[in-house]
Structure formats: structure tokens, C-alpha cells
Design brief:
This is EBNA-1 nuclear protein. This protein is an alpha/beta fold. Helix content is 33%, strand content 16%.
Length: 338
């Protein structure tokens, strides 16, 4: 799959910033690919890009309109279809990370056909996977896990890749969601894989490698989330992580989209070790990544210090403080290979 650049990010009329996390992720990690954003009336998200209509975006050289949203069920609202058709008629390709294929919308399929444009459904795997085998394989792997959805698992893995490469370590980000795929150009949307093959897809994504090579696997969901724990567990078993980092958003009291209370960090550590030992008996937690976006600086830094002390682990905010201490811990714990 070759998605042409640069991008126009379509935000539709989503109700909040978090619903546009796909677009935000692309802007944060690949800003040079983003020309502007297209928002419908009532949109409550803003990526800080120039607002453009289709004609303006075409004039600026946009090649692909990216549907930069994530919502429950991964659906494309019918009232968005017209804008996607307009983009195709203007000569752009269209890419989405939602569950339903773009070609299943007759108007979109016809517009792509008559204009000779490409439709990219990055959330839908274009290959078949084997079932997971649980066989140990060479190389090192780290998985980011969460107390909830949308707490920073992708950002933590990407920040670790950047820091580790800067230090000369062998490290690759492994995308398991649509945003990560747009950022990295490779990966598998793990929540779109048939359940029997989730672990096998994770094994394919993080194959045997050099003994000192780190695969930094983007986590999904939470073992405690009633909607997505199944995906999380399959990813954990297939990734076979040697290390994991717990990601947490401290201002939440309930899990996203449901009424369940947020689990404690310690509960996540204990359950991840328990479940992860099935395919890697040596799994261990090596750090905490706290999303302090909604906290003032003194409060945020105080919280990081306190949580790190309580759990005896390096504790950072990947955006506010960087992930240096997390990499230090990996090098310390895996000295022969780090």
C-alpha cells in the first residue's frame, strides 16, 4: 500500500479532540506530510492546521484525503460521503482507518472508478495470518499497555523508537492501529483481525530478529476494558514482550465509553505479568508513561515523582519530560543485549 503525500486531514464533525486522534497522531509525528484540515460545521476538534476546502487543498498539491478520526465501531457516517466524493472528483485519493470498506459505499466506489483514484482501507488487512504458535523467537520486544484506551500507548512506543535510535540502538516501532500505520507506513490494524488470528498477526508483526534488536509494539485497548480486552490479550500473547510500559491518564475516573472504573497501575502490572507469562515467562514491567496533558507543570512533575517512587520504576510523560529514563532502564535490565 503506497499512500501518496501530502495529506489533507478530514475531521468531519467529531464531538471532541480525542475523536480526531488519528489526525492528531499524523500531525505530531509526520507534520511535513500535512497541508491542512477539513472540518464540517459543528466539529469540536482542531489539529492546528489551516482550514481548507477541497478546491483549496487541491491547489496546494494535496494527493490524499485522510479520514483522520476514530469512533466506536469504526463507522463512516453517511453525511460524510459527499465530501469524500468531492475529493475524488478533484483528483485526490482517499484513505481511512475505519472498519467499513470505502468501496462498499456506491457513490465513493463510482467516484474512484470514474476518476481513476485509489481507495485505501488501512484498517482492513490485505493478507491472511496464521494462528499464534507461542514459540519463542530471537530478538527483544516491548509492548505498551494501558489502564484504558487512548492513554498514550502509541505515542510512548514512537517516543521510545526515536530516543533509542538516537542512542544508536536497533529499534523499530510496530504499528497495530490505523494511526500508527499512517505514521509508519507498515503494520496491521489488530482490532480488524479475526479473533483466532490476533496472536498470529502479532507474531508476524514482530518476527525473529537480531539478538539486540527491539520491536516496540503499539498496544491496544486494556486488559480491563470490557469492550477491548480480547484484542489486548491476543496482542500480548503474540507479541511475547520481554518488557512492557504501563500507560495511564490520571484525570479519568471511568474507562472510555463504558461505566467501569479505571484499574490501578499496580493491577495492570500484575495482570499483564500473569497473562503475558503464557508466552514469555520472563516478562517484566520496566516503566510508567503518564499522560499529564491536563495537569499544570508542578502538579504533573510531582505526580510523576510520586508514582515512580510508589512503584519503584522510572516514570515519565513522553511529551512533557521525554522517555530517556525508560530507555536507561531497558539498557540496565538487558545489559548483554542493550
Amino acid at each position: 500500500m503506497e499512500i501518496q503525500k501530502p495529506y489533507l486531514l478530514f475531521l468531519g464533525d467529531v464531538p471532541d479532540q480525542l475523536a480526531a486522534k488519528t489526525a492528531h497522531g499524523i500531525v505530531d509525528w509526520r507534520p511535513e506530510w500535512c497541508v491542512g484540515q477539513l472540518r464540517l460545521p459543528g466539529c469540536k476538534a482542531d489539529c492546528g492546521l489551516t482550514d481548507l476546502d477541497i478546491a483549496q487543498a487541491k491547489a496546494k498539491g494535496v494527493k490524499t484525503l485522510i479520514v483522520g478520526v476514530a469512533n466506536a465501531g469504526g463507522v463512516l457516517p453517511e453525511h460524510w460521503v459527499g465530501k469524500l466524493v468531492e475529493a475524488l472528483d478533484a483528483g485526490m485519493d482517499v484513505a481511512t482507518g475505519l472498519h467499513r470498506r470505502l468501496s462498499s459505499f456506491p457513490a465513493i466506489a463510482e467516484a474512484a472508478r470514474r476518476n481513476g483514484r485509489a481507495l485505501h482501507d488501512v484498517r482492513i488487512p490485505d493478507m491472511e495470518f496464521a494462528t499464534g504458535k507461542g514459540t519463542r523467537r530471537q530478538g527483544l520486544r516491548l509492548l505498551t499497555v494501558g489502564t484504558d484506551c487512548s492513554v498514550g500507548k502509541k505515542y510512548t512506543a514512537l517516543a521510545l523508537e526515536k530516543e533509542m535510535r538516537a542512542r544508536g540502538l536497533q529499534a523499530d516501532f510496530r504499528a497495530t492501529g490505523q494511526t500508527g500505520i499512517f505514521i509508519s507506513g507498515r503494520g496491521v490494524a489488530i482490532d480488524a483481525v479475526v479473533s483466532d488470528f490476533v496472536a498470529g498477526a502479532a507474531e508476524w508483526l514482530s518476527p525473529e530478529n537480531a539478538v539486540d534488536h527491539w520491536d516496540l509494539v503499539e498496544g491496544q485497548g486494556s486488559l480491563f476494558h470490557p469492550s477491548f480486552a480480547g484484542v489486548t490479550l491476543g496482542l500480548l500473547h503474540g507479541a511475547q514482550p520481554d518488557a512492557f510500559v504501563v500507560c495511564h491518564e490520571p484525570t479519568r475516573t471511568k474507562m472510555r465509553g463504558v461505566q467501569h472504573a479505571l484499574p490501578s497501575i499496580q493491577a495492570v502490572i500484575e495482570r499483564t505479568v500473569l497473562e503475558g507469562q503464557l508466552t514469555n515467562p520472563g516478562i517484566r514491567c520496566t516503566g510508567l508513561a503518564i499522560n499529564t496533558e491536563h495537569l499544570a507543570e508542578p502538579e504533573a512533575l510531582g505526580l510523576l515523582e510520586r508514582l515512580g517512587r510508589e512503584h519503584g520504576l522510572p516514570c515519565v510523560d513522553p511529551i512533557r519530560t521525554g522517555v530517556g529514563p525508560l530507555v536507561d532502564e531497558l539498557v540496565r535490565r538487558f545489559p548483554a543485549r542493550g
